[in-house]
Every structure is written in C-alpha cells, then in structure tokens.
Amino acid sequence: MKGMVKPRLSAARIWNMSMGFFGIQFGFALQNGNASRILQTYGAEVEHLSLFWLAAPLTGMIVQPIIGHYSDRTWNRLGRRRPYFLVGAIATALALILLPNSSLLAYVLPPVLIGAGMLTLMDASINVAMEPFRALVADNLPDEQRSQGFSAQTFLIGAGAVLGSSLPYLLAEYAGVSKTAAPGVVPDNVIYSFYVGAVVLLATILWSIFTSKEYSPEEFKQFNPEHTDAHTGGIRTILKDFSNMPAAMKQLGLVQFCSWFALFSMWVFTTPAVATHIYKVQPGDTSSALFADAGNKVGFLFSIYSAVSAVYALILPFIARKTSRKAAHAISLTAGGLSLISFYFIQDPNLLIWPMIGIGMAWGSILSTPYAILSGVIPAHKTGVYMGIFNFFITFPQIVNGIFGGLIVKHLFDNEAIFALVLGGAFMIIAAVAVLYVKDKEKTAAEMLVPTYGVA
Questions:
Q1: Ranges for the Major facilitator superfamily (MFS) profile domain (predicted)?
Q2: Which of 401, 315, 434, 439 is nearest to 365 (CA)?
Q3: All residues at 6 or more sequence positions from 100 whose CB lies less than 8 Å from its CB, including other chains
C-alpha cells in the first residue's frame, strides 16, 4: 500500500532540523582530538589508552539500538525524536564541562578514573542525542528532498568538526590562552575549548528542537502505511530485528570492521605517535610545551581531515556515477590507508597536513557509502532501530581494538604508537579490497549516497 506524499519543506526548515549535528560533531571532535591527551595528563599509560576508549563503542553498541527502537515508538509534546535530543544534549554538555576538570575531584577518586567516567558519560549522551537525528530527515522529508537534507547534514558535520578540532590550537596560538599547565592539570586552552563546546552543543540542539516540527503518529501512518503501532517487545523485538537484518548489512560487516578498526587506532594513538615519533617527546612527558605543541597539532590536523571530508562528500557522487559505489569507496579507503602508513615516513610536522587529505577522503566515504548501500533495504517504520543495529558493525571493531590495541602496542611494537597508525592503514586497505566483493543492489549511482555520523 502506497502512502501519501510528504510535503516539500523550505530550505530553512531543512537546515533547522539538522543544526544540532553541528554541535554534536563540535563536541565529538573535541573528544577525538583531546581525550587521549587529557587521560595521559591524568596519568594513563599509552598502552592503556585504548581500554579507556572502549567507552565509546560499548555505549554505542548498547545505547543506539535501544534509542532507535524506542524513538520509533515515542510520541509526546516534544515529538518522536526531539525528546532524545534534549536529554542527550544536557548530559553531553555536563560531561564536556567535567572531563577536563576531573583533577578537581581528586579527593573522591583518582583523576584518571573520573576522567574515564566522564568520557563514558559523554559517549553515552552523544549516542542518545545523535541516533534520532539520523532518522529525523527520513521522517520529515519526501524522497526528492532527502539528498538536500543529507547535504545540509554533511556540511554541518564537517563545519562542526573543523571548529571543534582546531579550537584548542586557535586559542593557544592566536588568543594567547595558556597551552601548558602543572603536571596532572589540563591546560587552559583545552578546558576553555570544552566549555565552548558545551555551549555550542546545547545551543544548536535546542535550536533544532524548537525550530523543527515532527509529524504526529496519525500523519506518519498516512505517509507510511506499512508502519505498525506495536509498542511491545522491547529488547526481544530488537533481537528479532537483528536476526532478520538485510543481507547487505551482513556483507558490509568485514568492510566496516576493518574501516573502524583503523579509525579507532587513529583517534587513540595519533597524539602519542606524533609526540614521540615526530616531535621527539620523551615517553612519560605530558606537561612540556613540546607535548602541548604535539597535542595542539593533532587537533588541528583532525580539523583538516574533517574539512576535506565535507568537500569530498560533494565530489563522491560524481566518482560513484563514473565508476560505482563500491569502486568509489575502495578508492577512498585506499587513499586513507596509504595516508595513515605515511605518518611513519614523515619527520617534519609541517608535512603532516598532506596525509589528512587521504584520511579526509576515507572519512567522507565512510560517513556515506555504507549507508547508501543499506538505505534501499530497510523498512521506513524501522529506520531508527536498523540504523542503531548497523552501529554494531562500527562498535565491535572498536571494542576489539580497545581490548587488544594497547597490548599490541606494548608487546609487539615496544610502546611505539606510530606502528598502531601503520597497522590501521593496513586494515583500511584490506577494507578497500573487501568492499569490492559486497553485492550492492545499486540504483541510480550516487543519488543514494546518504551521509551520517559514524562513531560509536
């Protein structure tokens, strides 16, 4: 049974409902670029960093399918998805404020444990706020406007990541904010960046909440007659949906595993790798100006790959049209893998900007192409839960890396974090080969490219 066609929305309404993605990515970028640095400041050893980072995939694996399932079935005065935006925004803003100030609570627990707890809270809260955003565009827009809606998300994701990643560097280098502090204390440029991140995240998500409208259950059923009203089942229903996942989701498993194993290695180990291998910082030094320079540089580099990914997302459909989605993804992943490996051969920090181009290409494709392949096979009334379930293929490789990555760096690489980046590059190239064997029921090429936020 075919439902009514959804009315077209104005450009302003499309941008309004995605504005929260800017704040989410702003906060996520601050976490990615600075969490390892903060935890090292609190006393974490390099080989233990990946264990602390397990918070992200573990919470994502648990939270996203549950939030997706219940947001498909929620309706109150705020709507279907917006209640989750609000709860996630408040909790994430609180975690952004507390994470760089964990040393102030040292009389309760060691700062590294408090920092790990705040990292876990931040990851869980970001997942609560983020997951329903993925479904909101599909809920509200007719088919012919979805590419415009997801393009807006792509731009906001990139812009938020660029500003969030580069803010500590900008505050230190251009605003005169201190980039060093006493041992065990996070520098002011990082603390103030997290404060700004909390304000930006809360403000942008509130903007989306109060300027967006959601269709009522009655209207939604008119647009999607296949939608059911079943509100029972809970976890049992999620597990049933998991067992009945489309074949394309399973076929993408290896590609996603290798891609996200590589990304996790990059997020966790780039700061110690750049500090020791390129800046020649001595192991255990987390309070010198040189270590601060390395940490600020990594944040700036992460902003570069985010900017590249936003631009590359506009080029990717053209590449897919000329080749195929699988070929476009393989090209992008190969560029990312070679770029990660190239870190080993670079000694001049000023040259590190060049690998960020390839990494940005890979990130831009990872945010879109797997979801393009998936988008044609998931039912509209289960968009939220299947987006959450697909997150399993993102979180599982990060959990594996979190458990074994630090052990590999310590015992196989003799605590030289640079080789974790080389290993990540190899995994990304394996993903490039694996995607060529995915059976993609490709439609009109790149029109199906659907960017999304791919973190745990």
A1: 248-456
A2: 315
A3: 34, 38, 186, 190, 191, 194
d(CA 327, CA 16): 34
Token couple for 446: 């790149």
Summarize pLDDT for 364-390 with one digit per residue, the tens. Answer: 889 878 877 776 666 666 666 676 777
Mean pLDDT, the chain, whole residue set: 83
pLDDT class of 3 with cuts at 50, 70, 90: low
What is the spatial distance between Cα 419 and Cα 427, in angstroms, rounded to a whole number?
12
Q: State pTM to two decimals.
A: 0.75
Work out the angle between the directed axes of helices 383-390 and 55-71 (0-180°, nearest 10): 170
The closest of 306, 440, 298, 442 to 366, measured between CA atoms, is 306
Q: Which domains does the chain have, with CATH numbers?
A: 11-223+235-448 (1.20.1250.20)
pLDDT higher than threshold 50 for residue 455: no
CA atoms of 16 and 168, how far apart (whole Å) = 27
- Only one residue has tokens 């444990």, namely 113
Alpha carbons 206 and 201: distance in angstroms, whole number: 8
Structure tokens at 12: 């302003």
Residue 30 has pLDDT above 50, yes or no: yes
Residue environment code for 431-445, b if the CB has 16+ CB neighbours within 10 A, otherwise e: bbebbeebebeeeeb
Distance CA 136, CA 355 (A): 34
User: Token pair of 224, please?
Assistant: 């999607």
**For 166-192, what is the mean pLDDT?**
91
Contact in structure between 74 and 401 (CB atoms under 8 Å): no
How far apart are alpha carbons 31 and 424 in whole angstroms? Answer: 20
> What CA–CA distance (Å, rounded) separates 97 from 86?
17
In angstroms, the CA 345 to CA 420 distance is 14
The structure tokens listed for 425 are: 């590059």
Can you tell me the distance from the alpha carbon of 275 to that of 260, in angstroms, rounded to the nearest whole number?
A: 23
Assess contact for 421 and 344: CB atoms under 8 A: yes
CA distance 410 to 267: 17
Q: How confident is the model at residue 2 (pLDDT cuts 50, 70, 90)?
A: low
Query: Read out DSSP for 425-436?
Result: HHHHHHHHHHHT
Q: Which residues are registered as beta bridge partners of 76? A: 79
pLDDT tens, residue by residue, 290-349: 998 998 899 889 989 989 988 887 788 788 888 888 899 999 999 999 999 999 999 999
Structure tokens at 129: 């706020």
